[in-house]
Design goal:
Elements: E1 2-11, E2 14-24, E3 29-31, H1 40-47, E4 54-59, E5 62-63, H2 69-75, E6 76-79, H3 91-96, H4 111-123, H5 139-152, E7 157-160, H6 169-186, E8 189-193, H7 197-200, H8 203-210, E9 214-218, E10 224-228
Parallel strand pairs: 3-8, 6-7, 7-8
Antiparallel strand pairs: 1-2, 1-4, 4-5, 9-10
Length: about 240
């Protein structure tokens, strides 16, 4: 579904991403991890066609750099870390922006577009805030609205750049479970990290990437847990 082939991103003389090749099959979760400044956001922005790059990005066999912006928007939805949020726009109107690729050049939102957006807001727990202006919403609510807009876009590839950083633990689980439901229902592909958990969640690898000591444990259900470790010895008084 998504293919990234030797993608390199440069900012002047600085190389943010160097010859990365990765792929994600239909309906697959793929994760990208690394320390701050490692180039994670740059790679996602390149995949979303938001920064210049060398190499190729393909979705469903189509080379993204050779198709129209409208066609790209039907193939890839992107949730950035710092989205633009017009203060005077309502949550439902902002979510409706996700339907733009599906509306004719001189058309308006249809009843179906309204239904899709209302359903997404309901499933993400914002149905009661649909008419509220973005300026009146909390940080966590705003982040969910941004995710709702991307989900309403109904693209087969969904790129998420730290989509739950402003959410509390319960809302993080809810948001990711919703994305996972839609992945299974629609066969969407989400790119947020790289490698299977057993390979990626390695103590030495995580410690090297993030500069912190961690333990990787397995719980009673066979799930992997990453636990940070203290680096300073306790001083006895």
């Amino acid at each position: 579904m998504l293919g990234i082939e030797r993608v390199t991103v440069r900012y002047g003389a600085s190389v943010a991403v160097s010859a990365v090749t990765e792929s994600a099959a239909k309906g697959e979760w793929v994760g990208l991890i690394g320390a701050n400044g490692a180039g994670k956001s740059s790679l996602l922005r390149a995949a979303a066609q938001l920064v210049p790059y060398d190499g190729a990005v393909k979705v469903a066999g189509e080379t993204m750099g050779r198709i129209s912006p409208r066609r790209r928007a039907r193939l890839v939805a992107y949730v950035p870390q710092q989205p633009e949020l017009p203060a005077g726009m309502s949550a439902i109107d902002y979510t409706l922006l996700g339907r733009t690729p599906h509306i004719g050049y001189f058309g308006v939102e249809s009843a179906e577009d309204q239904r899709v957006c209302a359903e997404v807001l309901d499933r993400i727990g914002l149905a009661g805030l649909a008419e509220r202006h973005l300026s009146t919403l909390s940080g966590g609510e705003l982040q969910r609205v941004v995710l709702a807009r991307a989900l309403a876009q109904d693209a087969p590839v969904l790129l998420l750049d730290e989509p739950t950083s402003a959410l509390d633990l319960g809302r993080r689980v809810d948001a990711l479970e919703l994305v996972d439901e839609l992945r299974r229902e629609r066969g969407q592909c989400q790119v947020v990290a790289a490698g299977v958990p057993a390979d990626v969640l390695d103590e030495q690898l995580l410690s090297a990437c993030f500069g912190a000591r961690v333990r990787v444990l397995t719980d009673d259900e066979g799930q992997l847990l990453v636990v940070p470790q203290r680096t300073r010895r306790r001083i006895e008084c």
